[in-house]
Write a structure and sequence with these properties.
Blueprint: E1 37-49, E2 59-64, E3 73-76, E4 80-87, E5 96-98, E6 122-128, E7 133-138, H1 143-146, E8 153-158, E9 167-176, H2 191-195, E10 203-206, E11 213-218, E12 221-228, E13 235-239, E14 245-249, E15 252-258, E16 263-265, E17 270-276, E18 284-289, E19 297-308, E20 351-353, E21 356-358, H3 360-365
Parallel strand pairs: 1-4, 3-8, 9-12, 11-19
Antiparallel strand pairs: 1-2, 4-6, 5-7, 7-8, 9-10, 12-17, 13-16, 13-18, 14-15, 14-17, 18-19, 20-21
Length: 371
């Protein structure tokens, strides 16, 4: 199916209609100075970028350091991370380190783990990185809009003994709800999105751009880190003529296994793949998103260059080393039964609000939705 956008955007678009303080915060009491320290700066603020066409209109976004996604923070397992976040927005914000085990005060949840970072102020996050894996960072303050406008970035914790690959590549997947002029639709948090499938976009990007081609070399082995930064979009990826190995879900190693069909990745999920490029020089193959049966499209083409790196594939894919996170003790776990029902598509049945049963329409009049 041709990847055109039916409301006027050109090129390929998707076919789907505590602690804040000015200055530097003090180093927390739990700091461990003996660990190697890596320092980064993040400036959250408004900007503009070419999401759709490098020769067309720029899209107004909110971003870190003027980029979407924000800069990739990459450190080694066991190192200590210090990130100074300056808020250049006109509203409060925070940064949450999605998937990482961090101290309570560093988790970035507004009014629970910290006071939100006020406009013009700076907050310093500092924590150890005990677990390797693919993670990402984003606000937890009005995240439905702040993330939706572009405030997110990859956070990579490398293993002390990483697998042997030729390239380590990150794809941050996202979808955007754009208007004909390539600007973001302002209908964040509307009732239809709240009560149905969430904010589904109409334009898909890889690392902040509509991407037609990913260049590769025959015989290469790449580690492909997938991050779904979309608000509600589920991606179901198929790699034509290739069978990637899954080696980690959400930063945690698993027994490697090959994917022979579709690979589903929900919002906020991360999947690490090993992909052997077994085609010939000059070949190309499509990576397709087929999750929604009526909205299948080509995400991009992997295009082989004229040379071959090696004749035979590298050895069998080995499992990643275990992280330090202990296994849960399921035998002694408390068990609770939760029954889900109702919803906008579930018969408009009763719900509870403020300890009493109310009708769905009363919930809506109070700005609530049961999904």
């Amino acid at each position: 199916m041709k990847n055109t956008f039916n409301n006027g955007l050109s090129r390929r678009s998707f076919l789907a209609a505590a602690g804040a303080a000015a200055g530097v915060a003090a180093v927390p009491a739990w700091a461990a100075p003996s660990l190697p320290l890596r320092q980064f700066d993040l400036d959250a603020g408004p900007g503009a970028t070419h999401l759709v066409d490098s020769d067309g209109a720029k899209t107004k976004v909110w971003s870190y350091n003027g980029r979407v996604p924000g800069p990739e923070i990459r450190i080694r397992q066991g190192e200590r991370l210090r990130v100074a976040v300056r808020n250049g927005l006109t509203e409060e914000t925070t940064v949450h380190w999605h998937g990482l085990r961090v101290p309570h005060a560093m988790d970035g949840v507004p009014h629970l783990t910290q006071k939100p970072i006020a406009p013009g102020e700076t907050f310093v996050y500092e924590f150890d990185a005990p677990d390797a894996g693919t993670y990402w960072y984003h606000p937890h303050q009005r995240s439905f809009e702040q993330v939706g406008r572009g405030l997110y970035g990859p956070l990579i914790i490398e293993e002390t003994n990483p697998p042997q690959v030729d390239h380590d590549v990150t794809w941050v997947l996202d979808d955007w709800r754009l208007l004909k002029d390539a600007q973001i639709s302002e209908d964040f948090g509307n009732r239809h999105d709240m009560s149905h499938a969430g904010r589904i976009g109409n334009t898909v990007t890889v690392n902040g751009r509509i991407t037609d081609i990913f260049e590769a070399m025959a015989g290469e082995r790449i580690r492909l880190r997938l991050i779904n930064a979309a608000n509600a979009r589920i991606f179901g990826l198929e790699f034509d003529g290739h069978t990637p190995w899954v080696i980690a879900y959400d930063g945690q190693p698993i027994d490697p296994h090959q994917v022979t069909g579709r690979l589903d990745i929900g919002p906020a999920m991360r999947i690490d793949l090993i992909l052997d490029l077994t085609g010939n020089p000059g070949d190309a193959f499509a990576v397709r998103d087929t999750f929604y049966s009526r909205l299948k499209y080509r995400l991009l083409n992997v295009v082989y260059g004229p040379k071959r790196l090696r004749e035979k594939p590298m050895r069998e894919v080995a499992a990643l080393p275990d992280n330090t996170m202990p296994e849960p003790d399921l035998a002694s776990a408390e068990r609770h039964h939760i029954a889900f029902g109702g919803g906008m598509m579930g018969g408009m049945t009763m719900a509870k609000m403020g300890g009493r049963e109310v009708a769905m329409m009363e919930m809506m009049r109070n700005g609530k939705a049961w999904t």
